[in-house]
Specification:
The chain is an alpha+beta fold. The protein is built from 12 helices and 22 strands. It has 3 domains: 157 residues, FAD/NAD(P)-binding domain (3-Layer(bba) Sandwich), CATH 3.50.50.60; 159 residues, 2-Layer Sandwich (D-Amino Acid Oxidase, Chain A, domain 2); 84 residues, Arc Repressor Mutant, subunit A (Orthogonal Bundle), CATH 1.10.10. 30% of the residues lie in helices and 22% in strands.
């Protein structure tokens, strides 16, 4: 892409779930807006290393923005999933007490949940808990139950919001890294690796880097620490160990190491919580993974042994922990039309639809933006061939024969699905972006068999050489071109 030099009314820095939700809600208004993202795809930073839990809202401190937006975001998530066609499941959540002397902590969580307006939250005694989850540890004393807890794929949420924002007029510039923000006479100048962008207003949804950009324009400084969470992901053969998302009692660093099913039927253990200096440190570490493995061996929350030879992947993510441990949303007092969405750590994923609505309304009022007469509110996701009935599959293959060619055997992903992912709005341009949209490469073999096939499809459809196909954008080429 050539250097860019453009002017917009609003520029959003960051295309994680928060930035994409803001973009989607802002696209309801008449505004020229652009999202810039240093990765090659949306949800390629903090949002991709996420537990995928939809929190009910009992954990946040009453009166905080976290608490306010958690319950609203939980309610909105099911509505947005219906509108934008991304998978969600209300499976409930349990916080398990394994020590009779710590029951008061359950009572405190229950009190918070009631104050925060969490529907149906209650404490279950041992018998009722084990009836609900018979594989829970025998040490179970009681548990807090929140029926509105759920699971989601964070990639699908961000992609759905971004695609809908895009068809409603918001531009996305990927592999465009914000380097600095400075005030001008008419607004702001955002310097990027692709040139300067001028804007009347800036939305700071930069995740672990949100403090960097905030502190460039405001004397009211904030500090964000990258808090690393590492995970062990198990094969789907263990996906029915628990129906609900199972948490231990929370500690000083967060909600603790949980054991939970994913929306796609896997099981995971994690995350850890360790503060790190390097805001790019998304590597996994032997010491932390060994600690997670020790918890698995010790039947941390589950009395059924979880065989470590069924771990198909490990991964990590960085949470943007702000010193005050609450969201920072809106304008700093000394930086007009610079809108923060900073410190969006857990339960940030759940809150993101509410943050999008809240901040877009603040921006629209501040900038006197009129609503669009025609807003496209619906979006259809990539068709999951494996989810269709036998007759639906036959009909689809007759209409589009490439749906009959299974590319990823672990997840039963067809060539038709991959073509859809490539050619839709903000379509896939790399192996990871195909994986996020279709799950090709996310199964038991982790792409061991389907990677060359997906690369060939990308090469053919994008009109590029195989040596130009990347894993996740520039610098991540999969193969090199050899001289004959």
């Amino acid at each position: 892409m050539d250097d860019i030099s453009n002017t917009y009314e609003v520029v959003i820095i960051g295309a994680g779930v928060t930035g994409c939700c803001i973009a989607r809600e802002l696209s309801k208004f008449q505004v020229s807006a652009c999202v810039i993202e240093k990765g090659d795809d949306v949800a390629s930073g903090t949002s991709k290393g996420n537990s995928g839990v939809i929190h009910s809202g009992f954990d946040a401190k009453p009166g905080s923005l976290m608490a306010q937006l958690n319950t609203v975001g939980n309610r909105l998530m099911w509505e947005k999933a219906e509108e934008l066609d991304f998978p969600v499941k209300m499976n409930g959540a349990l916080v398990v007490c394994t020590n009779e002397n710590e029951r008061d902590k359950l009572d405190a969580l229950l009190d918070q949940g009631i104050k925060n307006g969490v529907p149906g939250v209650r404490i279950l005694e041992r018998g009722e808990v084990l009836e609900m989850e018979p594989n829970l540890t025998d040490k179970t004393v009681a548990a807090l139950y929140a029926p509105t807890g759920g699971v989601i794929c964070p990639f699908n949420l961000a992609i759905a919001m971004a695609e809908n924002a895009n068809i409603n007029g918001v531009e996305f510039r990927l592999e465009t890294e914000a380097l600095s923000v400075e005030k001008t006479g008419t607004g702001y100048r955002v310097r990027t690796n692709r040139g300067d962008i001028s804007a009347v207003a800036v939305v700071n949804a930069a995740g672990v880097y949100a403090d960097k950009f905030h502190n460039m324009v405001s004397g009211d400084k904030i500090r964000i620490t990258a808090r690393k969470g590492e995970y062990l992901l198990f094969d789907k053969i263990l996906g029915d160990i628990f129906r609900t998302s199972v948490f231990p009692l929370p500690g000083a660093m967060g909600k603790g190491v949980l054991t939970a099913p994913t929306i796609h039927g896997n099981l995971y253990v994690g995350p850890s919580a360790n503060d790190v200096e390097d805001k790019e440190a998304v590597n996994t570490t032997k010491a932390v993974l060994d600690d997670l493995a020790d918890k698995v061996r010790a039947n941390h929350l589950c009395k059924v042994p979880l065989p470590l030879n069924k771990v198909i992947n490990s991964f990590s993510g960085l949470r943007p922990h702000e010193d005050r441990h609450d969201f920072i949303i809106g304008e700093p007092p000394d930086a007009e039309r610079f809108f923060d969405a900073a410190g969006i750590e857990s339960p940030g994923l759940t809150c993101s639809p509410a943050i999008g609505e809240m901040l877009s309304e603040i921006i629209a009022e501040k900038m006197s933006l009129p609503k669009k007469d025609r807003f496209i509110s619906k979006r259809r996701g990539v068709t999951r061939f494996d989810h269709l009935t036998r007759e639906e599959k036959k009909a689809l293959v007759r209409e589009a024969p490439r749906y009959g060619n299974v590319v990823c055997r672990c997840e039963t992903i067809t060539e038709g699905e991959i073509l859809d992912a490539i050619h839709r709005p903000l379509g896939a341009r790399s192996l990871d972006s195909v994986k996020r949209r279709t799950r090709a490469g996310m199964g038991r073999c982790q792409g061991g068999f389907c990677t060359p096939k997906v690369m060939a499809i990308l090469s053919r459809e994008l009109g590029i050489k195989m040596s130009d196909v990347t894993k996740k954008g520039s610098g991540s080429w999969m193969v090199t071109e050899c001289d004959k």
